[in-house]
Write a structure and sequence with these properties.
With about 425 residues, the chain is α/β, with parallel strands linked by helices. It has helices at about 10-15, 30-45, 60-65, 95-100, 105-115, 130-145, 180-190, 240-245, 255, 270-280, 300-310, 405-420, and strands at about 1-5, 20-25, 50-55, 75-80, 80-90, 120, 125-130, 150, 195-200, 200-205, 210-215, 220, 225, 230-235, 250, 265-270, 285-290, 315, 320-325, 330-335, 345-350, 350-355, 355-360, 390. The strands form 6 sheets. Strands 1-3-2-4-5 form a 5-stranded mixed sheet. A 5-stranded parallel sheet has the order 9-8-7-13-24, covered by helices on one side. The chain has a 5-stranded parallel sheet with strand order 15-22-16-17-18, covered by helices on one side. It binds flavin-adenine dinucleotide.
């Protein structure tokens, strides 16, 4: 593995053989998350592919020439030509391996794979999920000198990182951008000394043995497990939704509203998320229509007032989406009146869907006691039906799901575990 500058670019890449080039930055948590994977794969693939790093800020012109806009970004080259797809953000080991394998012969890939040695590491506590619940548990455990690892399939932060603004987290006079709040939470826990294994694939979880296998080869063992895997957005299930996800249908206003400047969008839903995110989306769009299945909004009164007084927002009550169709640049949302069954077509530039969430329990659903909505049941110490396995945050059975309640659950589980282990 080698660090290069723009002066060495021609020698190392244009006239070089197969290369993986990492445009990295300092003070960049995703770059830090990538570093150990990059080093690890350099050991395996280093004889066939050159592993190079280049400091993005120090080599700005080159970064701009290649259209590199975020750190880290991995580019793959063969004889000076860019090959394979670029990787950026929370880069997974499996995605890097897929790209590296595509640059080699099948026989060579087989030889390299045979060199992969499974590893085992041991901790006191494994936390699955680095949202507010998991991060808070990690902080409390770390401050109790309990050896803890946080494992997440994405980068740390959880749902807060994609929330445009948080105005109800105590301690801040002004509303905080969600990504800043989650960044501060994550850095506080990381700087305390909690080990992070993020943007990984979870291969297997054995709750009874307290073992988690990540990226197929790395077994992590512990005395206790905390599940803090949160929720993911529900789908409407209407035809066309899956196909148009990311191509006009979005579940994240912070991520995508900016692409709809002066345009017109539809929002499906009528609860707190739908209403609050609609208000935010109107910073960009000219017109927004909320499609809601009931005859009144179900969001809290304060949020409702904001949208009801917003001239850009109109509401179509008692309607549900029945199909999403792409027509040129537009999305046609076919909606049906739940009473009259009359259908109509709404043409817009994009659709945002906020119709509630479902718990992320797929990996452990068979072993855990769940409530009727498939959220994990816990006792007052946040312990599940399996001894030594705790669950916190949005994934558990409870009435209110907020950052403050996730943080509180994480605190309780960590304190209960610290008491046991100390
Ligand atoms: C649009 C929107 C706006 C919101 N606005 C507010 C607000 O203003 N104020 C407020 O208090 N709350 C708000 N919330 C709710 C708040 O975000 C959640 O209550 C809070 O994030 C829950 O924290 P958590 O740690 O339980 O889960 P999450 O934040 O969901 O984090 C779960 C983490 O687990 C990871 N994960 C998932 N599956 C696995 C797996 N199998 N293995 C390992 N890791 C996994 C995920 O990648 C994620 O990082 C909002 C939610 C949404 C969707």
């Amino acid at each position: 593995m080698k660090e290069i500058t723009v002066a060495e670019f021609d020698r190392e890449i244009v006239n070089g053989g197969k290369v993986i080039l990492d445009f990295y930055s300092t003070e960049c948590p995703p770059c830090e998350a990538l570093a150990s994977k990059f080093e690890d794969l350099a050991q395996l693939y280093g004889n066939d592919v050159k592993f190079l790093k280049i400091f993005r800020q120090g080599n700005r012109e080159l970064a701009e020439k290649f259209g590199v806009k975020s750190s880290p970004t991995l580019l793959f080259f063969d004889k000076g030509q860019e090959v394979a797809s670029r990787l950026t953000g929370g880069i997974k080991r499996s995605d890097m391996i897929r790209n590296l394998d595509s640059m080699l012969t099948a026989d060579r890939v087989k030889e390299i794979k045979s060199l992969i040695k499974p590893t085992v590491s041991e901790f006191d506590v494994i936390i699955l999920g680095a949202g507010p619940g998991g991060l808070t548990a990690g902080l409390y455990l770390c401050q109790s000198k309990i050896n803890t690892v946080l494992i997440d399939i994405a980068l740390p932060g959880g749902q807060v990182s994609t929330t445009h603004e948080v105005s109800n987290y105590p301690g801040f006079i002004e509303p905080q951008p969600g990504y800043m709040l989650s960044h501060s939470m994550s850095e506080q826990t990381r700087l305390c000394g909690t080990i992070y294994k993020v943007a990984v694939d979870i291969t297997r979880v054995d709750l009874e043995k307290k073992e988690v296998v990540i990226d197929e080869y790395e077994t992590v063992k512990a005395k206790r497990i905390i599940i803090a895997t949160g929720t993911t957005p529900n789908l409407t299930g209407a035809p066309g939704e899956k196909e148009l996800k990311g191509k006009g249908i979005s579940y994240c206003a912070t991520c995508d509203a900016k692409y709809y400047n002066d345009k017109e969008v539809i929002v499906i839903g009528g609860g707190n998320s739908a209403v609050e995110e609609s208000e935010y989306i109107t910073r960009f769009v000219n017109k927004l229509t909320i499609v809601h299945q009931f005859d009144k909004l179900t969001a809290n009164k304060q949020a409702q007032e904001k949208v009801l007084n917003n001239p850009k927002i109109s509401i179509l009550f008692e309607n549900e989406p029945r199909a999403f169709i792409k027509e040129g640049d537009k999305i046609v949302t076919e909606v049906e009146n739940v009473k009259t069954k009359l259908r109509q077509k709404l043409v817009s530039d994009g659709v945002f869907i906020f119709i509630g969430m479902k718990p992320n329990i797929e990996l452990f659903k068979d072993k855990l006691e769940l409530d009727q909505w498939r959220y994990i049941k816990t006792n007052e110490d946040m312990m599940t039906n399996i001894t030594g396995v705790y669950a916190v945050g949005d994934v558990i059975s409870k009435k209110y799901r907020q950052i403050t309640t996730a943080v509180a659950d994480g605190t309780i589980a960590a304190m209960a575990i610290a008491k046991e282990l100390n």
